[in-house]
Amino acid sequence: MRRWVVLVCVLIFAALAAAQRNAKSYEPGTVMSVEKLEPNDVSYRKITDAPLRSSGSVYNISVQVAGNVIVGRYASASDYLPSMLTQGKSVSVRTDKHRMYLKEPFGEDIELPVVSHRRIRKQE
């Protein structure tokens, strides 16, 4: 009986430790700038040589997080840009390898591929 209690306790602690490692931790950040990129004038498909025109919009979103500026790329099929992605807005940021996740007010994440990352130098 005692072995079962010990085994159950070990399993519970292992599950709690695994859940804590997988927990999403967000940091406070500030949108520093939003830059709209010009669409590529010419892009080719493998099937034909006809150029494609992009009807969507692409933006570089710079976010300052704890002494770093992370630039992510936001692409939209239309000219839509969420209101949280405006200069000076506070956002909750989570990074994972080459992705940046911005938490929207209603709980969903906006996933942005990271384009660049740099440290902010201290002014002396």
Description:
This protein has 124 residues and is of the alpha+beta class. It has one domain. Helix content is 17%, strand content 42%. It is built from one helix and six strands, in the order αββββββ. A six-stranded antiparallel β-barrel has the order 1-2-3-6-5-4. A hairpin with a 5-residue loop joins strand 5 and strand 6. The mean pLDDT is 80.
Query: Average pLDDT across residues?
Result: 80
Number of structurally distinct domains: 1
| Structural class category | alpha+beta
- Portion of residues in helices? 10-25%
State the end-to-end CA separation: 66 Å
The spatial strand order of the largest sheet comes to 1-2-3-6-5-4
Cα gyration radius (Å):
21 Å
- The total count of strands amounts to 6
Enumerate the spans where pLDDT stays under 50 for 5 or more consecutive residues.
Answer: none
The main pleated sheet reads as:
6 strands, antiparallel, barrel
Name the beta content range: 35-45%
H-E order: HEEEEEE
Tell me, what's the shape?
Answer: elongated
Number of helices: 1
